[in-house]
Amino acid sequence: MAQLQSCTSAIRPSRWGLVLIVIFLASTVVWGQQRADSRIFIPADRAVNGDAYELTSTNRAMALDVDIAAFKAVAAPEMTISNVPLAPGLTVDLELREWNIVKEGANLVYGTEHGEEPITLGVRMYRGTVKGESESDVFLSFADGSLLGHVTTSDKSYEISTDFEVKPDGFRVPATSYPTDALPNSVINCGVNEDNLLDLLGGSLVDYDYEKYAEHLHAPPRTAANSIDYAAEGAWEGDVEYLGLFNGDGQAAADYMAGIIGEVSAVFERDLSVQLTISHMKIWTSPGAPGYPYKEAEVMSIALNETMNYWNQEENKKIDHAIAHTFSGKNWKNPIGIAFLDVLCPRRGNSPDAQGAYSAITRKNSARDRSVVTHETGHNFGANHTHYCGWGGEFNGAIDKCAPAEGGACFSVTEQTVGTIMSYCSHKELKFHPLVINRLKQKIRNEDCLIASKKLLIQPNLVIFANEIQGVPRDTVLETFFTNVGQYDSIEITGVLRDGADNEQFEILEGMPPFTLAPNETKRIAVRFKAELTVGAQMHLVYQHNGLNPPIKVTFEGYASDIRPILGLRNDFDEIMWTERFIGTINDTVQEDLYINLGVDGVLSEQTATLYITETWIDGPDKLDFQLLEGSAPIQLDGLEKASAAFRFAPTTPGSKKATFYIRSNSDGVPGTLDSLGLVGNGVTGPIMELALPDLIIDFGDVRKGSPRIDTVFENFFRNSGQVSLVYYTELQRTKGEENVFTASTISNLLKPGESDRLTFSFFAKPEHQLGLKQAQFIIISDNENQTYEVSNDTLHLVGNVLAPSSVPDNLEPDEFFYVTENPTTGSEVSFFLGPRQGEVGDLFIASLIDMNGREVWRQVGQFQTDQGDTWRLDAREWPSGVYYIRVSTTDEIRARKLTITW
Predict the structure, then answer these.
(1) How many domains does the chain have?
(2) Are residues 733 and 621 part of one domain?
(3) Cα separation values, 329 from 183, 217, 278, 826, Å
(4) Distances from the Cα of 695 to the Cαs of 430, 477, 663, 729, in angstroms?
(5) I need a surface site. Which of 338, 773, 788, 812 has the fewest CB within 10 A?
(6) Range of the domain at 736
């Protein structure tokens, strides 16, 4: 096993930039061709190392040098590469078109110990043909240090792969071309077998009629896909050992993974018209990376379960993917691949889903790597092995007998034939068997998560005109009846077949084919039910189109009756009145049995037509102030049946409010029907508590210890500026420090609109009080007069500063919590830093600046918001020279710092 290098080397950027082109599905874009005149593929004068590729013969193998610099110089979306040597004496020209499988916005990351880091892919992929051979197939993937691909001519297939045993010479990448029939006749050991077949089944197996599809047995050769019907988003990951195959070179590991996926996609595009895309790629660089899932190294089925558990994690379910596949570099021998069967499009719900595939990667043998990934991905799509007994056909249920029977005993003796991708035959071709293709195409068409190039959706598929009035035609318009849910191609709706009993009772007013829908475009249909007969009428429509799904059938039914439903409203009242309600309040009312079907046409209620309430809404100048809470359409009422409703009135502005509640039903136009109801209310302004002190702080200033009581009087402190009465309550609470420092005169009272109340506060600086800041809170709560809801809740802060008899402060020694900048010689600012001591965060403080005579020239009430403190800057231009003190009072102490200003 190769040694891992540090993760820094695993994420180095590519040496060229790549602007991703769109994922082409049924592309019709034509680019100007670029011809490569300088040689890109150059015969090399060295022997082919057959052991590196496990070749049985090197007679037709050829050593090459691939000039990446020459390729970059001529690389274009469409190009021809001339003189490509495939074997001694065989040179071809390749006509190529660039092909990208990376989804726009794909999540491409390395999983490192420090989290995810981005991957920048440095690979360019091309599809095409050999010039002059329409039935040929070419895939090439170029990267800075590697190349992989294949060329299938009319008579032989060649693999082109990087020769990792030879050191690159500058921009020349050593490679080898060899015929695929030089590979050993060995069986790919897959972990899906008779013992675990049911355990690995995630979808549903379907038996197919072998004889019905027998014409596919000798189908013409398949060539490069010219159109793609679907794209399947893939989530691809590589374990730590996979990165180790590249000696820790993350760029090389990412480019190789993308190349293999591209080559596998080329097979799926050619045979199934479905492209495999990369929506997620993650290569893990360390087993210590957070969330690393791939730890099992002995039993591959356990490793597959690790993959399943990983993708069923809540965060990973959010990643868009139809399939999930792990590239492993562990030393797997038997098996070398395993996958769940029939698990396209895992769900995103809470239940765990069987999903995932696991492939052992060699790096050196790209043909084997491509084959195993293709095989296991085929399982995910729903393909069993070709020796599975559920296929039917000439081998009594199996397509071939290259391995012992699976899923039954349809044969007992094995025999070797030329196999296909899902077979265990010792020699096989890189293609799906026609019966496998047929099965997979049906599964692909039925999966919702695959991105379709063009797909027609018609909904609803059943439309009913229920109990219409005989002789009264009814029209309906379905705005988004037709939708092209495809993402890339237009759909032509070419015609419609029509039948059904009395279908002449319907008239299609709008939406008749032919017409065309662009991707995501919708179209409406308008249909009239004439209602001329009292028997039920049906119109079946089958729409013909060129989308990927079959013709679509929809049905219209219509029923007319001369027994008429009549919508009545309880007590025949014409409005709901709320009278006066305060602005901002919510006022709900339940109207029991509001609706009633009064349309009794006989003695018994069953002789009455059913009432269908199809639409309910509120309109009018003040419709936003009203809301229907219960009793909204659709509602169905038989004769004399009733239904309730609930309404809300929530005025947002003062004044009279009016709106109308409308009901649409199949009794519209029938005499006696009521189809509307008035909604009336009046929004009024409630009580509003207005305080005379907007900043909610009362500062009693500095008071010498033992001074007389200080009173502060507010004549109109409380005022009701609303339109109805309120009740208020007050409470004085000590915040910190001594009690009985503050008093307040008012406890509670009722205020009518426009009334106000006086408030008196007192501050005591008694001899026994400590020096420093005193504070309290005065809480004011007001309710409406009936005390059913709270109007306001305010807190007033009371502060005062108790000082010693001397005007000169002490406690002058600076510390880390309080210091000043002294003697400014330039500028006009004085600054000081003030921070809280332990336990003071959230406390109030009083900062003031006094002169030598004790006169205060600046004062500020503040609060310690955080434990970081703040720097205060004061404009000192108007201050005369002299000595000042900056004093700070808290509940615990008084601090001061001396400041000398000289101008």
Answers:
(1) 5
(2) no
(3) 21, 37, 20, 72
(4) 83, 61, 53, 20
(5) 788
(6) 689-803
User: Which of 122-136, 312-326, 536-550, 794-808 has the weakest average pLDDT?
Assistant: 794-808
Same domain, 557 and 582: no
Amino acid at 96: L
pLDDT range class, residue 14, cuts 50, 70, 90? very low
Sole residue written with tokens 């009581």: 709
pLDDT per residue over 635-648, tens digit each?
A: 998 878 889 999 99
Residue range 122-149: mean pLDDT, rounded: 92
Residue pLDDT, tens place only, 51-95: 878 888 888 999 999 999 999 999 998 899 999 999 999 999 999
486 and 634 co-located in one domain: no
Are residues 159 and 15 both part of a single domain? yes
Which residues lie closer than 8 Å to 604 by C-beta, 6 or more apart? Answer: none
Q: 10 Å Cβ neighbour count for 273?
A: 20
Chain Cα centroid distance, residue 716: 58
- 512 and 551 belong to one structural domain: yes
Amino acid (one-letter) located at 773 = L
| Minimum mean pLDDT range among 231-235, 647-651, 672-676, 812-816 | 672-676
Choosing from 156, 182, 208, the residue where a domain stops is: 182
Residue 772 falls in which region: left (phi positive, over 0), alpha (psi -120 to 50) or beta: left
| pLDDT > 70? residue 745 | yes
Give every strand in the sheet of 522-529, ordered side by side.
Answer: 456-458, 474-484, 522-529, 506-510
Tokens of 771: 């020096």
Kindly give, in sequence order, each residue whose CB lies less than 8 Å from that of residue 566, ignoring residues fewer than 6 positions away. 597, 598, 599, 611, 667, 670, 671, 672, 673
* Domain presence at residue 18: yes
Alpha helices in 382-505 (DSSP H): 434-445
Is residue 406 in a domain?
no
